[in-house]
């Protein structure tokens, strides 16, 4: 149980392209989803917290217009990297917490998306 | 606010030897504590968590961790490692109480390298 699917697993695209990454909770309803960015050999940096039906809360230093997050349903959140540039290349990971989960319950992680901007 | 420090960036160890991965945290509020494992090009898998109660918690794959409030530590241990334990390990905390959204603050990660 508690499976989170992230798609695509890998994407390579040209500079200036916008890229959408999907995060789905397959067997539970996720009221809260989190988006992380991970640089090589580095820890996970929380980018934003999204709650179903409301605007995402971005961490300090994360550009809202650059990283658009939509959480339109209880099973789907999307991250769109707009006008991507090589410096946006990274490993992006989403996680989700269920409707019944309390804040002390662990998040369920997707397998990540490797984004490479040429 | 919370912060997490994993004191070792890399830990090399021989197969079947014991291992300890160190984690210290700081927080102005009480916290929940977690250890996650990440295999190459994959997401994170929960190893174990401390919420309350017994300070010694057991997780999957033979791992355990001990919460020490006075030392603000949550070190991860395994008595005998396998080659398959080679991975990146992350310690994380989540603040308790109103105003805390349950977001995780991660340490820098420790690479466990198990050698034959």
Written account of the structure:
The complex is a heterodimer of chains A (118) and B (116). Chain A has strands at 4-7, 10-13, 19-25, 30-38, 44-51, 57-58, 67-73, 76-81, 90-98, 108-109, 113-117. Chain A is an all-beta fold and 118 residues long. In chain A, a hairpin with a 2-residue loop joins strand 7 and strand 8 (76-81). The model of chain A has no long low-confidence stretch (mean pLDDT 89). Chain B has 116 residues and is an all-beta fold. Helix content of chain B is 0%, strand content 53%. Chain B has strands spanning 2-5, 10-14, 19-21, 24-27, 31-38, 44-50, 56-58, 64-68, 73-78, 87-95, 105-106, 110-115. Chain B starts with a strand and ends with a strand. In chain B, 34% of the residues are buried. At the A-B interface, strand 5 and strand 9 of A face strand 5, strand 6 and strand 11 of B.
Summarize this entry quickly.
Chain A has strands spanning 4-7, 10-13, 19-25, 30-38, 44-51, 57-58, 67-73, 76-81, 90-98, 108-109, 113-117. Chain A is mainly beta.
Quickly list its features.
heterodimer, A: 118 residues, mainly beta, 7-stranded mixed sheet, 4-stranded antiparallel sheet, B: 116 residues, 6-stranded mixed sheet, 12 strands
List the helices and strands and how they pair.
The complex is a heterodimer of chains A (118) and B (116).
Chain A: E1 4-7, E2 10-13, E3 19-25, E4 30-38, E5 44-51, E6 57-58, E7 67-73, E8 76-81, E9 90-98, E10 108-109, E11 113-117
Parallel strand pairs in A: 2-11
Antiparallel strand pairs in A: 1-3, 3-8, 4-5, 4-9, 5-6, 7-8, 9-10, 9-11
Chain B: E1 2-5, E2 10-14, E3 19-21, E4 24-27, E5 31-38, E6 44-50, E7 56-58, E8 64-68, E9 73-78, E10 87-95, E11 105-106, E12 110-115
Parallel strand pairs in B: 2-12
Antiparallel strand pairs in B: 1-4, 3-9, 5-6, 5-10, 7-8, 8-9, 10-11, 10-12
